[in-house]
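thought: fold this chain, then report.
action: predict
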Amino acid sequence: MTRRKRLLMGLLIASAVLLVGYGAAYVSSGEVRYLSTAGLEEMRILSKRVPIDHLASDPKTPEDLRARAKLVLAVRRFAVTDEGLDAKATYTTYSDVGRDTLLLVLTASPKDCICPVTWHYPIVGSVPYRGFFKFDDAVDAAGQYAAKGYDVNLRPSAAFSTLGWFNDPLLSTAIMSDSVELAALVFHEIAHNTLWVKGATAFNESFAQWVGYRSAEDFFTSRNDTAMVNLARGRWHDEHVLGDYYRLLIRRLDSLYALKLPPAGNDSGRAVIARWSRDTLATGFGPQLWTYSIGNVKERPINNAALIGVRLYRTNLELFDAWDAANDHDLARAVYRLKELLKGARGDQAFKRMAAILHMTPADSLTGDAATAN
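observation:
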């Protein structure tokens, strides 16, 4: 029996034991059903893994996929040898999930407060989102929160990280034509292996965004690919622009919600702010973007849950730039020192420790980790 088959058999046996042991709980507990479904889906993905180096060297591999596989291998090497990141076994394999969307991510929030519903998981702690591999399950969960009067948002995700606990494969849903985005994705997920603060989702995701685009810039600089270097810098610039836009929008909403208006008054205020946000994006922030195109901006209803999602990856980005500068733009050194600084940190302590060392005041009070009643 091959090593791969032994591993798969072990996973199947372990899952069978879990299912037998939790049989009664499965019937009565939605949480156990959710975890069981996620575990079985992870098994399915892991069972279809193919070594990326085989894809990169096999002449039978489609040319575009072979090129992407070579790029991923080069990015992984650079992450370890030049950026000092802990790649572990992340993206040494590839898995075709057989569909366009890997999973749907749910966020939920009351309509009168940007206060995310949180879910608690082993290892990672509390996070303000929940992923669903099954479309119907995602829609059903969103519907339950909507029925309680919450704002809800479902967004597709092409990748996820198990923080190095499994050999996370590169998924077919994450293969894209943009080399910068693919490189940034690989660096992003490897960044999660390198540093993860429990209960600090906004910090973790914003940190990984910083590492993703900064490492992509370093990587393409090492290849003397000026066009890709400029694109990576442009993407990071645009993340800042969008971060500033959403910061202003959320501050306006926070001021509205502080008034504690009745539902009708709160809805009217949200409608006014929605019109302001459309005009501000179209005329104020949209023209500042270098690489993203916002197209014809249409008025959209305010959705607190959607705002939580977009802010998670753009919180206090100026702290990471300042940390980068304080470490002479040496990313390996910057990440190492940040890991040392944040040993034992949890939740809001991550941003607070950074800000204290840098003698800065965080621009964002929203961390994405505030809890509400589920």
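thought: worth noting. The mean pLDDT is 86.
final: tokens above.
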